[in-house]
Write a structure and sequence with these properties.
Layout (H helix, E strand, L loop, with lengths): L10 E7 L3 E8 L2 E9 L2 H4 L9 H14 L9 E4 L11 E3 L2 H9 L10 H12 L4 E5 L9 H4 L14 H14 L8 E7 L3 E7 L2 E5 L19 H8 L4 H9 L4 H5 L4 H9 L3 H24 L6 E6 L5 H11 L5 E5 L3 H13 L22
Parallel strand pairs: 1-4, 4-6, 7-10, 10-11
Antiparallel strand pairs: 1-2, 2-3, 5-6, 7-8, 8-9
Helix pairs in contact: 3-4, 6-13, 10-11, 11-12
Enzyme class: transferase
Family: Belongs to the acetokinase family.
Protein name: Probable butyrate kinase
């Protein structure tokens, strides 16, 4: 994708911070010319008192990787990071400005996750490059729920979502291209199946329903407990504190709590070798994923153009076969193993640089704070 008025494609550096590594990719238009997964020692990261305190350390490791490949910051047109730590926002590409940076540093949404470093790293690298543009694209805080999806049976308690929005939307765009249609004309059920599992319904370009995977919704995952009965959870709280329960929702539930590992490959292999607890946990996870797909198909009133599976676990052909067996009566099931997060970030920045998309400005105001007619 060539930039307007230029004879070359835009050079965009995408940065995706994870729990023990930071993925970095340099793109020239659609082509990835360099990528690296910069590893971080868990012991080294444990020295920092907060996620945001890791910023200088992660920045220097990225700069070292770029230096090793003789990549000059001044040769890069824009920097884009995976967003995080923000209030709920509409999907799209956002300019990294002072307000967005403030909220990301604080983790204003109450979720401490390495993704909130994405905007901070993009900003710092852009400044070092002479004040280039910095963006975030479809961060985990993307919330496009329809009104009915927000309701609960408790006054003043509403549903929100935290999902793998970046990969979900990019997978949708790519699949829509295979159908010869724009994403904005498709109805899709899209799953990201990895350490966390996102299931979402996309209607005409909007992620109109999905699960809050850090709030204890959806299927169990390798590191997350998923949905549990509220009354039983209250009993559980009689012997555990709230911090324990939050950990079960984000990093210590699912396979970790049931089997002592977050390694999905290990669990699937143990299940195949006759390990009964592993088989029960694995099959329950797949069962719950399929139930989630069914619920999202109902949210789309059965008008589903495709069921899409992305994420690292989708490399497991048995997993895909099991989901297809249970769900392909709804719509064709298509696997997109792995993730397109770096590509999605670079593409979002290029669309803005090309003038195909208007960059959004972060307001710091959640997309939903309640219904106007409530008293």
């Amino acid at each position: 994708m060539a930039g307007k008025g230029t004879e070359r494609a835009w050079r965009v550096l995408a940065v995706n911070p994870g729990s023990t590594s930071t993925k970095v990719g340099l793109f020239e238009g659609d082509a990835c010319v360099f990528s690296e997964n910069v590893s971080h020692s868990a012991a080294r990261l444990a020295e920092f008192e907060s996620i945001s305190a890791q910023l200088p350390y992660r920045r220097e490791t990225i700069l070292s990787a770029l230096d090793a490949h003789e990549i000059e910051l001044f040769s890069i047109d824009a920097f884009v990071g995976r967003g995080g730590g923000l209030v709920s926002i509409e999907g799209g590409t956002y300019v990294v400005d002072a307000l967005l940076l403030r909220d990301a540093r604080m983790g204003v949404n109450g979720v401490q996750h390495p993704a909130q470093l994405g905007s901070q790293l993009a900003h710092e690298l852009a400044e070092r490059a002479g004040g280039r543009s910095a963006f975030v694209v479809n961060p985990p805080d993307t919330d496009e729920l329809c009104d009915l999806a927000r309701m609960t049976g408790i006054r003043g308690v509403y549903r929100h979502v935290h999902l793998h929005a970046l990969n979900l939307k990019e997978t949708a765009v790519r699949h829509a291209c295979t159908l010869g249609r724009p994403y904005e004309e498709c109805n899709l059920v899209i799953c990201h199946i990895g350490g966390g599992i996102s299931i979402s319904a996309h209607r005409h370009g909007r992620m109109m329903d999905g699960y809050d995977i850090v709030g204890g919704e959806g299927p169990m995952a390798p590191t997350r407990c998923g949905a549990v009965p509220v009354v039983d959870l209250l009993d559980y709280l009689g012997e555990h504190d709230a911090a324990d329960v939050r950990a079960l929702c984000t990093r210590a539930g699912g396979f970790v709590d049931l089997l002592g590992t977050s390694d999905a490959l290990e669990v699937s292999e143990r299940a195949a070798m006759g390990d009964v607890p592993a088989r029960r946990a694995w099959d329950a996870m797949v069962y719950q994923i399929c139930k989630g797909i069914g619920s999202m198909a109902c949210a789309l009133e059965g008008r589903v153009d495709g069921i899409l599976l992305g994420g690292g676990m989708v490399r497991n052909k048995g997993l895909v076969a099991d989901i297809r067996r249970r769900c392909d009566w709804i719509a064709p099931v298509t696997a997109y193993p792995g993730e397109f997060e770096l590509e999605a970030m670079a593409a979002g920045a290029c669309r803005v640089l090309d003038g195909e998309e208007q960059a959004r400005v972060y307001t710091g105001i959640p997309v939903f704070t309640g219904f106007a007619d409530e008293v």
